Amino acid sequence: MSSFFIFFILSLLSLLPLSLSQPRGILIDCGATNNTVIEGRRWLSDEGFVSGGTPITISVPVVASYLSTVRSFPNDPGHKFCYVARVYREAKYMVRTTYFYGGFDGRDSPPVFDQIVDGTLWSVVNTTSDYAAGNLSYYEGVFLAQGNTMSVCIGANSYTESDPFISALEFVILDDSLYNSTDFKNFGLHMVERSSFGYNGSVIRYPDDEFDRYWEPFKEGNSTLATNSNKNISVSGFWNVPPLKIFETELMTGQGEPLELNWPVASLPFAKFYIALYFADSSDSSSANSRDFDISINGVTYYSNLNVTPAGVVVFAAQWPLSGPTKITLTPSPKSNFGPLINGGEIFEVLPLGGRTLTRDVIALVKFKESLENPPSDWNGDPCLPSQYSWTGITCSEGPRIRVITLNLTGMGLSGTLSPGIANMTALNGIWLGDNKLSGPIPDLSSLKRLEKLHLEDNQFSGEIPLSLGDIATLRELFLQNNNLTGHIPSSLNGKTGLDLRVSGNSLLTSAPPPS
Ligand SMILES: *[C@@H]1O[C@H](CO)[C@@H](O)[C@H](O)[C@H]1NC(C)=O
Ligand SMILES: *[C@@H]1O[C@H](CO)[C@@H](O)[C@H](O)[C@H]1NC(C)=O
Ligand SMILES: *[C@@H]1O[C@H](CO)[C@@H](O)[C@H](O)[C@H]1NC(C)=O
Ligand SMILES: *[C@@H]1O[C@H](CO)[C@@H](O)[C@H](O)[C@H]1NC(C)=O
Ligand SMILES: *[C@@H]1O[C@H](CO)[C@@H](O)[C@H](O)[C@H]1NC(C)=O
Ligand SMILES: *[C@@H]1O[C@H](CO)[C@@H](O)[C@H](O)[C@H]1NC(C)=O
Ligand SMILES: *[C@@H]1O[C@H](CO)[C@@H](O)[C@H](O)[C@H]1NC(C)=O
Ligand SMILES: *[C@@H]1O[C@H](CO)[C@@H](O)[C@H](O)[C@H]1NC(C)=O
Ligand SMILES: *[C@@H]1O[C@H](CO)[C@@H](O)[C@H](O)[C@H]1NC(C)=O
Ligand SMILES: *[C@@H]1O[C@H](CO)[C@@H](O)[C@H](O)[C@H]1NC(C)=O
C-alpha cells in the first residue's frame, strides 16, 4: 500500500508545471535510481512503476543520458513484466518506448522480444539493425486510457535469445482532436513512419511539436527539394496539430510532372492503416494559378482533385488496407499550372485491441497480490491478456467478458494470507493453493457459486472452517489437510454427498459439534 502511495505522489509531481516546460505526461528513465532533468525535461526513476527486473548502467557512450541505464528482465517466455502508470481515464496518450541495447549483458547483438500495452500485443521489438548502425530504436503508439492505470510490458517469446530490456518509457497526453477518426475504444495506433518531406535537418520534435512527436526527415523521390524558410504559410486548425515547421519544406515537381514517393520506407505487414498527408502551398497563388492533383497509393485512388492553397489541407484515411512496399503518386490535373507538392505524412498500423480482463476480477487479484508477501514476479499488467502472457497460475475465459476461471499457485512457496477479496472472482471454478506457507483464516467464499475445487492443503491456515463453505452447491473437492484449523467441522460439510472433504493433520480440529 505504501509503495503505491509514494508512486502516486511521484506521478502527480511529474504533472506539475514547476519551472519546466514540457508536454503533459510522464517520462520514465528505466533503470535509473534518481529523478533527473535532461534537456529541460523531467525524467523519473522507474522504481515506483515496475516491480521486477534489474537496473543496469551501460558502459558505452550514449547520445542522451536517459539512455545510459536500462532495466532488464528475465528471458522467461510467456511471462510479461510491466510498467504501470497512473493515467487520466478516457484521455488519449502517445506512448513511446525507447531501446538502446549498449551491450549491457556483454553479448554482440540485442535480444528480440515483444512489447505489450494493457491487454494488447503492441509489436515485436527488433533493434538489431538500428543498434548495428549505432542508433537507438523507438516505438510510438496512440492508446486510450480505459482505466486509471495503463501498463506497458516487455515479454520474451520463442525468438528471444537473451534478457529483454527497456531504456525509456513516455506517456504524453494528446488533445481530443488528434487522430479522432479512430475508434480508440476498440483500436490503437502503432506508428510506422512520421515524416517531414524535403527536410534534411535533425528530427523535428518538442517544442516545434507540442506533444513531442518525432517527425523524421525524408528526402527521397525523383522530386525537386524546395526549402523556403521565409515562405508565407498560414496553416492552422489541423485536428492532428502538426508542427508548422513541417510546412517550411516540401517535395515537389515541375508543372505537369507527377511526384512519386516510396513512402513509408518500411515494407508493411498485411493490415489496415491510418494515413494522414499534409499539404500547404508556398507560392503566390493568385486566382489565376492553381495547384491541383490526384493522389493514389499503389495505383488505388486515394483522393481526386486536391486543391492545395497556403491555408493548407490534410487528407486522411482511417483504415486503409496495405501490405508490402508502398508507392504514393501525386498526379497533376491537366488544368493545374503548378506541379504537385507534399509537406508531411503520418502512417500508423491500426491495431485491434485485445480487450481487458473484467475490472472486478482485476481488483480482486490485486487485493490477493497485496495479501501475499512474495507474489509471483509477473503479477503486473493485465492478468489474462494477451492470452499467451497471462499471469503465472491463472487461466481465463475467452470472448467479450474476460474472466479468471482458475487459480493454481500450488507449491510456489507463497506466504501471506488469503484475501477475502478473492470472493469477488465469481467465475472461479477451481482454486489450488496447496503446499505453500499461507496463514490466517479462510475467508467467506460462499459467493463463488461455480467453485468446484478448493485446495488449501499443506499450509498454515488457522481459525475455524467457515460454515458458509457449505453454501457452495457446486463444491466437489475441499482439501484442508495439514493446516492449523480449529473448532469443529461444520455439519453442512461433514458427510455432504458428492463432496470429497479432507481435513486430516489439523490437530485441534474436532469432527463433531460439541453436544448442546
Ligand atoms: C542518486 O541519489 C543518491 C541519494 O540521493 C546519491 O547518493 C547518488 O549519488 C545519486 N546518483 C546519481 C547518479 O546522481
Ligand atoms: C531482427 O532484425 C534483423 C535485421 O533486420 C533480422 O535479420 C532478424 O531476422 C530479425 N529477428 C527477428 C526475430 O525477427
Ligand atoms: C542511424 O542514424 C543516422 C543519423 O540519424 C541515420 O542517418 C541512419 O539512417 C540511421 N541508421 C539506421 C539503420 O536507422
Ligand atoms: C475531431 O475533432 C474535430 C476538432 O475538434 C471535430 O471538429 C470533429 O468533429 C472530431 N471528429 C470526430 C469524429 O470526433
Ligand atoms: C540541407 O539542404 C540544404 C539545401 O540543399 C543544404 O544547403 C544544407 O546543407 C542541408 N543540410 C544538411 C544538414 O544536410
Ligand atoms: C518522376 O517519375 C515519373 C514516373 O517515373 C516521371 O514521369 C517524371 O517525369 C519524373 N519527374 C522528375 C522530376 O524526374
Ligand atoms: C502573408 O499572407 C497574409 C495573407 O495571406 C498577408 O496578410 C501577409 O502580409 C503575408 N505576409 C508576408 C510576410 O508576406
Ligand atoms: C497446478 O499447478 C501444479 C504445479 O504447476 C501442477 O502440477 C498441477 O497439475 C496444477 N493443477 C491443476 C489442476 O492444473
Ligand atoms: C467486492 O467488490 C465490491 C465492489 O467492487 C467491493 O465493494 C467489496 O469490498 C469487494 N469484496 C471484498 C471482499 O473485497
Ligand atoms: C496453531 O494454532 C495454535 C492455536 O491457535 C497456535 O498456538 C499455534 O501457534 C499455531 N501453529 C502454527 C504453526 O501456526
Tell me what the structure shows.
One of its GO terms (cellular component) is membrane. It is found in: Membrane. With 516 residues, the protein is mainly beta. It folds into three domains: 173 residues, Galactose-binding domain-like (Jelly Rolls, Sandwich); 162 residues, Sandwich (Jelly Rolls); 152 residues, Ribonuclease Inhibitor (Leucine-rich repeat, LRR (right-handed beta-alpha superhelix), Alpha-Beta Horseshoe). The chain has three helices and 36 strands. The strands form seven sheets. Strands 1, 2, 3, 7, 10, 13, 14, 15, 19, 22 and 25 form an eleven-stranded mixed beta sheet that branches. It has a six-stranded mixed beta sheet with strand order 26-27-29-31-33-35, with no helix packed on it. Strands 28-30-32-34-36 form a five-stranded parallel beta sheet, with no helix packed on it. Strand 8 and strand 9 form a beta hairpin. The chain is elongated and about 100 Å long. One 2-acetamido-2-deoxy-beta-D-glucopyranose binds next to loops.
